[in-house]
Structures are given as structure tokens and as C-alpha cells.
Design goal:
Strand order of the largest sheet: 1-2-3-4
Largest sheet: 4 strands, antiparallel
Number of strands: 23
Oligomer: single chain
Order of helices and strands: EEEEEEEEEEEEEEEEEEEEEEE
Helix content: under 10%
Low-confidence stretches: 220-271
Strand content: over 45%
Structural class: mainly beta
Mean pLDDT: 77
């Protein structure tokens, strides 16, 4: 279309299951590049493709799993952000790859630019002189803190409890108030962990395939822990399908209660769920 939005012209038609995102100009303005996502059932793929300005046949330049954003530099590099492989899939880092002058394929392997943790890097662009990269640095991390309840009913200074740099959510205390059950994505999926108040590292409690969340200690029968398990086919009393949520029980220390965002224990210490934004 023209500079004032007049005479729009279709360049490319999406097929069923396709989406086009983040259109960018090539360095000489002869081609456009874009992110193409294709979803079919529970499978999806993401790629960077280019297309002549006049329309025609598109060229797939790069297949990237977990692609976040990209831009095309004046010296012929595509700079992009992508997710790290599990268990660090919540982290994104910057990469670059050289592209041939024709703009239809790469001329070398991708090269890592950053090795950061805890960030999502989105909306990449370059300054006018091409010397600086601009991006949105986003992200959040759920941490656990503990704090004493003082004599006036208020909370004392909080102390960070989990130190892994992953998402952690509190669930239940042991009866003596010295250990907390929580669930975390530090292994690549949600699993259940247990950690003492004076310990710096958590103990693995339930590490199996699928998600294990929200452990609860049974009040009536001592010695077992109940947790929700999602996305697994398992027989627990009755048949469960892949889409069901079922329950898993493991060894524990007895009865106690808790809440998802704040849980109290007998010695009047609280576990606090804190979400930090980037």
C-alpha cells in the first residue's frame, strides 16, 4: 500500500492453520520477512520466511523452536530471540544468523549472542544507524519467602526461601512447621518438592512425567501426602484419561493445611508467594 494507506494489495494468503507475525523489511527493501506459525492438532512449528515485495514464492530461511521475535540488520544478519530448551524454557536469549544477499537462505550457522536467565526478549528492532539493538525485556518469576508473625499480628521482614531462579508455589507445611511442601517448574515440568526452614536446597519429593501440583497433607490419616497430577493416563481407584486430573499419594509426615498463595504453620511463620516482573 502507499504511504497514506491507499491501494492495499495482498501479497500472500495464509493456509488453514497458518499465522503471519512481525513483518520486517530486508536491508535493501526488496523483500519482506515475517514469522510464520503453523498449527495442526497439538503440533505446531515456527519459521522465518521471506517474500519478494512484488509477491510470488516465499522462501523459508530458518526453522526455530520457541522463536520470540526477530529483526533484519543492514549488514545482512537476522537477529532473533528464542527459548532455551527444557528445563530452562522460560528463558529467552538472543541469536544471530547471516543471510545471503538474495534473502532466500542463510549463509552460516546461528551464533548465540547472550546467555541470560529469567527474561523474555520481545519486539526486536535496530536503531537507525544499526549500531544498537532495541527490545522489550519482559518476564516474571514466582519466588517463596518466609516471615515471622510478630506480637502485633503483623509480618516481620521476609526472607527469601527458594533460591533456584524458577517458579515456586507454596502448598502445605509439615505438622511441626519446619518443612514446606511446594511445587516448582525447575525440572522442566511442575513437580513436588519439600524444603526445611533452615535448608538452602529443596529435596525432590515427586519427580515423574506429567505435572504434579498442590500437595496437601491428610488431616485424619498420618503419614501420607496427596497431590494433583495432570495430563497423565493413570489408574487411581477409577480409570482416568489423559484429559483428567487425578490424585497421587506419597509418603509424608502427617496432617497440616495450606493455601495456594499463603500458608500458615503452627510456629506462626508464613510462606509468601511473590511474583517478580521483569
Amino acid at each position: 500500500m502507499g504511504a497514506d494507506g491507499e491501494s492495499p494489495r495482498k501479497l500472500l494468503q495464509a493456509a488453514p492453520g497458518d499465522r503471519f507475525l512481525q513483518v520486517q523489511w530486508s536491508p535493501k527493501g526488496e523483500r519482506i520477512a515475517y514469522i510464520k506459525t503453523h498449527t495442526e492438532g497439538d503440533k505446531s512449528e515456527t519459521a522465518i520466511e521471506t517474500l519478494p515485495l512484488a509477491g510470488g514464492v516465499s522462501a523459508r530461511v530458518l526453522n526455530i523452536s520457541g522463536l520470540g521475535s526477530f529483526c533484519w540488520s543492514a549488514d545482512g544478519r537476522i537477529i532473533y530471540s528464542a527459548e532455551e530448551p527444557p528445563p530452562n524454557q522460560n528463558d529467552m536469549n538472543l541469536w544471530e544468523v547471516p543471510v545471503e544477499r538474495s534473502g532466500v537462505k542463510t549463509s552460516g550457522p546461528p551464533r548465540r549472542i547472550t546467555s541470560w536467565a529469567g527474561l523474555s526478549l520481545l519486539d526486536l528492532s535496530l536503531s537507525q544507524d544499526g549500531k544498537r539493538l532495541i527490545f522489550v525485556k519482559a518476564g516474571f518469576q514466582r519466588d517463596l519467602y518466609v516471615a515471622e508473625l510478630n506480637s502485633k499480628g503483623g509480618l516481620g521482614p521476609p526472607r527469601r526461601f527458594t533460591l533456584e531462579g524458577r517458579n515456586d508455589l507454596p502448598s502445605a507445611w509439615t505438622p511441626d512447621g519446619q518443612r514446606l511442601f511446594f511445587y516448582s517448574d525447575r525440572t522442566g515440568n511442575w513437580d513436588i518438592f519439600r524444603q526445611g526452614l533452615r535448608e538452602r536446597r529443596a529435596q525432590d519429593f515427586v519427580l515423574v512425567s506429567g505435572e504434579q501440583i498442590e500437595p496437601r497433607l491428610r488431616r485424619r490419616f498420618m503419614g501420607s501426602v496427596l497431590g494433583l497430577c495432570r495430563g497423565r493416563k493413570r489408574k487411581v481407584g477409577t480409570d482416568a484419561t489423559d484429559a483428567d486430573t487425578d490424585f497421587r499419594r506419597g509418603p509424608g509426615n502427617g496432617a497440616a493445611g495450606g493455601a495456594r498463595s499463603i500458608s500458615a504453620m503452627r510456629s506462626w511463620t508464613f510462606a509468601l508467594h511473590s511474583q517478580r516482573a521483569g
